[in-house]
C-alpha cells in the first residue's frame, strides 16, 4: 500500500521515473551566465521558482562579517522603479509570493505563482537583484532589525549551543564557523550604505546565478522572459573562501554556555566529519546516523525519551555539508535536573551504536525508508525544485536525481558500519550545553 501511495503521488505530479528520467526532462540553458533549469510536471497552473547566488554570509570580508547579510536584506526594500509597497502590491494582486534570504553560503530566492504570472515574477526578481533602491532610511531600519534579531538570539539556548559548537569544531575561515554575536552587532553598527552598494556592485551579477522553475511551465517562454528581464546585466563574482577543513580544535570538549532562568538545557554533541555530501562515505554514514537519531522510532528517541522519560526531543543527524565539509550532531533538550542522567543515557546509546553498528534488520528498513522518502519528496513542484537545487549545490550531475535510489540500494551493511567507525569517535566529540547549568557535567 505504501508503494502504491508513492506511485499515485508521482502520477499526480506527472512524473514517471520508470520511463524517461528526471534529468533528461530538465531543459537547461546558459543565458549570459545565468544557469536556467526548467522542468515541466503535471502540476496544473502552478509554478515553483528557486534561485541562488553565492553571496551568503560566508562571502563577507573578514573585516566585516555582517556585510553580505546586510546587502541581501536590502533587495526586498524597494528598487529604483518600485518601492517595497508597490512590489508587494504587484505580487498580492496575482496571489504570487517572492522572497530573498541570506543563508550561510548563498543568497536564496524562493517564489510561487500561477503559470500566467511567471513573466511578472521573473521581471521582479531581475529588478530587485539588479536595481535595489539602497535607500538610507530603509537601511537604517534593516540595521535595527538585524541587531534586534541578534540580541534575541543571545536568549535562545539552541542558537547559543549551535554557535559555540561551530567555533569548537571549525577553524577560523571555515564557512560553517559562526562569528560571535557581539562582533556581528559591532559590524552592523559601523557598516555604511556605501559599503553595501560596493559589495553589491562587486559580487552581484549573472555569473553564478542559478534559476530553477518547476511545474506548469513553458521552457521556451521562460528562456525568453529571463533573456529579456536580465538583458544588459553583467558581472558577478564568486567569493574567495579559505580552503580550511573542520576537525578537532584546541577547544574544551565539555563546554557550558550559562544562561540564567532557563527551564531547559540545549545540548549539541558531535564533531566535524571532514565530509561533503557528495563524498564516498557520506550516504552510508547518513543512513547509519538515521538509525541512531532520525526520528521517533530511532534509538535515541526510543530509549532516552520513550523508555527513560528524560527528554521531549533528541535527534542525531549530519548537516552543513552541501557545499563544504560538514558536521555530525546529536541535539537534545533536557530539564536542568535531568541533564546528567540525560547525557549518560545518550552516551550509552552513542557508544553502543558506534562500537556495534546497526543491525541487518535496521539496515534493510532504513534503506527502504530513504528511498520512499526521497520519492515522496519529489512528488511536489517545491520538492522537485529543492532536489534540483540540492543536486547542483552538492556538486552532482543532474543524473544523480535518477540514480539516488540505486545508490541507496547498493549500500552494504559493512559499508555503513565501517563509515561509522571510520569517521566518528565518541572520545573526541565536543559537547556544548546552553542553559541554566549549575555545574559542569562529565561525559
Descriptive account of the structure:
- The protein has 17 helices and eleven strands.
- It has helices spanning 2-13, 22-25, 67-73, 84-93, 118-130, 136-153, 157-169, 181-190, 193-203, 219-229, 282-293, 299-307, 339-356, 360-377, 381-393, 400-409, 413-423, and strands at residues 27-31, 34-40, 46-53, 97-102, 107-114, 210-215, 254-258, 265-272, 313-319, 327-334, 430-435.
- 45% of the residues lie in helices and 17% in strands.
- Strand 4 (97-102) and strand 5 (107-114) form a beta hairpin.
- The protein is α+β, with helices and mostly antiparallel strands.
- A six-stranded mixed sheet has the order 1-2-6-3-5-4, with helices on both faces. It has a five-stranded mixed sheet with strand order 7-11-8-10-9.
- It has two domains: 23-229, Metalloenzyme, LuxS/M16 peptidase-like (Cytochrome Bc1 Complex, Chain A, domain 1); 254-435, Cytochrome Bc1 Complex, Chain A, domain 1 (2-Layer Sandwich), CATH 3.30.830.10.
